[in-house]
Design a protein that fits this description.
Chain A is mainly alpha-helical and 204 residues long. Chain A has 11 helices and no strands. The model of chain A has no long low-confidence stretch (mean pLDDT 82). Chain B is mainly alpha-helical and 355 residues long. Chain B has 2 domains: 81 residues, no CATH class; 267 residues, no CATH class. Chain B is 67% helix and 0% strand. The chains are: A mainly alpha (204), B mainly alpha (355).
Chain lengths: 204, 355
């Protein structure tokens, strides 16, 4: 067996194993960590396919940003194991049904049609001089430049929409105006008072 | 020099076949990087205490060895022999995993950085992206430390750190995008090579505002003063480190200093011309300094940035948390986005001698 095939099986084992542990784990934080391991294994598999840009982007975006936000939320949740397990049996039939549908759909798509190995063929081995990032950039910024820009604008609109939906000016907010705070001068905070010489005597 | 070493290895152990010898060489390369790094980190703590001491008109450590030079080793042995205390209600696996997760990315990130023209462990095509990806993994150490300690101050520190790191990663990403646009490569070696020439050809002149933003971002990413709200002794005791003692704490400490050294190196590679001599192209000085090896230039430039860490720490009071966030989202982010457009325009129109 080739060394790369051994690597493939090791990474696949990690991939499948960690995703299984992730969905069966009862501790939310641990589940998130197993998901991170899954992402790393997927990135390693992509590295074997000479798609190093995709692999590193997966780590950068999903592990470095998305999962950090997940951890952020998990930390602030009250993760009592008993409350998480309470509804398990109630949703079990629905869960089994949905997963069966997904499995059947994926089998139908992957087994025949455009994703068949005979139709698509094995990806070419390019060798060390091949630059994945250049190849992607040439496709993305020439042939697919309009879909790419449209997707970017769509995401921007989604961000603005999400902010406008959530952001309301609160009445009792204790928000501080930092611009005002940092532009403050000594004269604004300090007042030089002049007293008459005999003012202390008068106060008696 | 490196090739002769490889030849020597093959001569000394001729019964090794190609693959095994390659793996051995990679391991030796890694160790040859990590051991000097650990020594460097140890003496950085000494330098930090000395520099800040002198800036505050104190002497700094001077008891252990001549001029206190053995102080780092005293600290290391103190850390090694301290008792490791586990909080009774903490999640013990995650509690012990956290320092490891902080330390491993801080070391792994060094695999792709060039310290000289032919002096690196790996030269991969997307090394800058690799650096950013692995660097962003380091936050899990702090996040997990805060969560697993089951204590309120670590949790507050971890919350602060998560929000800060995500925000400033964006800013640093945009800054690096401008450098990538000018150098037209995401390979660190190529970025440095495109700055060849003297001190006037380095990117710190055309991208000076970006260098300032990058350095402030680096201070935040490494949790250094004046942005060390993650630890914030006066507010939340010690942040994520409160419950840690002995070697687990030392791992956090080492990870922080490794990241500091790395950020200084990244600033050198991105803006200070990496291993290039500042006197290239100047008639007399170029010949005078031609004998200086690449590594020395990198180290000299790095030590400037490392000194900057201590200088800034001794000079500024700590920022308030919401002010750091405002600085990121309302000042740096618009600034970097505008600069991306400026750089794109200048590259397209062929303006300026550097594009």
């Amino acid at each position: 067996m080739e060394f790369t095939s051994i690597l493939f099986y090791v990474f696949s084992l990690f991939f499948v194993g960690s995703s299984l542990v992730m969905i069966t784990s009862r501790n939310t934080a641990k589940a998130a960590l197993w998901l991170i391991l899954t992402f790393f294994s997927a990135a390693s598999l992509w590295l074997l396919l000479e798609a190093e840009f995709l692999a590193i982007t997966l780590i950068l975006i999903y592990v470095g940003a998305v999962m950090v936000l997940f951890m952020f939320v998990i930390k602030m949740l009250d993760t009592e194991a008993s409350t998480l397990r309470a509804q398990f049996t109630r949703y079990l039939p629905l869960g089994i049904f949905v997963s069966l549908v997904v499995i059947v759909q994926m089998a139908l798509v992957l087994n025949a049609g455009p994703f068949d190995l005979e139709t698509v063929g094995l990806p070419d081995k390019h060798g060390p001089s091949y630059s994945n990032i250049t190849a992607i950039a040439q496709q993305l910024y020439t042939i697919y430049v309009y879909p790419f820009e449209l997707a970017a604008i769509l995401l921007l609109i989604a961000i603005i929409a999400a902010i406008t939906l959530v952001h309301r000016t609160q009445v009792n907010s204790k928000k501080q105006n930092i611009t005002e705070q940092i532009s403050v001068q000594a004269e604004d905070r300090m007042r030089f008072a002049s007293f008459k010489k005999n003012s202390t005597k008068e106060s008696k | 020099m490196w090739q002769s070493f490889v030849d020597l290895t093959h001569q000394l152990i001729p019964w090794f076949d190609g693959g095994l010898a390659d793996i051995l060489i990679i391991v030796i390369k890694g160790l040859a990087l990590i051991f000097p790094l650990i020594i460097m980190m140890a003496y950085m703590t000494y330098a930090e205490r000395k520099v800040i001491g002198f800036m505050q008109l104190r002497i700094g450590p001077n008891r252990v060895g001549p001029f206190g030079l053995l102080q780092p080793f005293a600290d290391v042995f103190k850390m090694l022999f301290k008792e490791v205390i586990f909080p009774s209600k903490s999640n013990i696996y995650l509690f012990l995993l956290a320092p490891v997760l902080a330390f491993v990315p801080a070391v792994a990130v060094w695999a792709v950085v060039p310290l000289g023209e032919d002096f690196y462990i790996a030269n991969i095509d997307v090394s800058l992206l690799y650096v950013m990806a692995i660097g962003s993994v380091g936050v899990y150490g702090i996040v997990l430390a805060g969560w697993a300690s089951n204590s309120k101050y670590p949790l507050l520190g971890a919350l602060r750190s998560t929000a800060l790191l995500i925000s400033y990663e964006l800013v640093i990403g945009f800054v690096l995008v401008t450098v990538v646009m000018v150098a037209s490569s995401v390979n660190l070696n190529t970025v440095v090579e495109s700055q060849s020439g003297g001190i006037l050809n380095w990117y710190w002149i055309p991208l000076f505002p970006m260098m300032v933003v990058f350095w402030i971002g680096a201070l935040v990413e490494t949790n250094r003063a004046p942005f060390d709200v993650v630890e914030g002794e006066s507010e939340i005791v010690g942040g994520t480190h409160v419950e840690y003692s002995g070697m687990p704490f030392a791992l956090f400490f080492m990870a922080e200093y490794f990241n500091m050294i790395f950020m200084a190196l990244l600033a050198v590679l991105m803006f200070f011309g990496g291993w290039h001599s500042p006197f290239d192209g100047i008639p007399v000085l170029e010949g005078l300094f031609a004998f200086v090896p690449d590594l020395i230039w990198v180290l000299v430039k790095m030590s400037f940035f490392l000194f900057l860490y201590f200088w800034i720490r001794a000079s500024f009071p700590r920022f308030r948390y919401d002010q750091i966030m405002r600085l990121c989202w309302k000042v740096f982010l618009p600034l970097t986005i505008v600069w991306i457009f400026v750089v794109a325009l200048m590259t397209q129109l062929g303006l300026g001698p550097w594009f």
